[in-house]
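Quarterly update from the structural biology core.
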Amino acid sequence: MKIIKESSLISEIESGYQILWPFGIEIKNGMLTAKVSEELADKIEFISDMTETELSSTEVIDKLITLIENEVERNGYEISYGKNRIYKMTRREDVNKALILDSSEVLMPEGEYESMIDVDVDALEAGCLAFATVLDGTIVSIASENPYREDENVVNIGVETAEEYRKNGYGTSNVAALTYYLLDTGMTVEYTVDNENEVSMRLCEKIGFALDRFVLNIFAHKQG
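Predicted structure, tokenized:
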């Protein structure tokens, strides 16, 4: 395991930062990298010999979260966290096109739609692509690209389907259609899934995505 020590958590707190990132783990290609403040480095040595399966288990994640929570609480901070699996696809031919339904259509920014879900208007106005299932003028499922990206050649996408319209293949179809189109532009497509969301994991694998890495990020926020 590679541990990258960042600046002191305590000194950052005293400097008045409102949001901190005291801990991050990434497992990729069998290699584990941990980014952690100096105060926490020694306390996470117990994960150094763990397998990816062990490290991504609920028991170990909860232990890490509790450890860091105790560390920052005494300085007036509380935490939030994300534990995700990142799936990736780079080749258009890997998309299972048989999953794409005729009901999947490109969502037009200037279109006037009713919606049963929260549509990311900012993403559409920013020119981001979205495929949706629109029934009788109402959006019941949508897959769209995230307008915020760290790498201009990598786009992260997400999907949302109204609860009463799930299990009809709409979300899967929209993700597959969106992915197929984006790969044609030369982009790499990533899909982020909560570590405990087995339904979304199966969706990714069915479409043709492959697991790229596991990521655990823990953030500290000033209480109140």
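Residues 107 and 130 are 5 Å apart (CA to CA).
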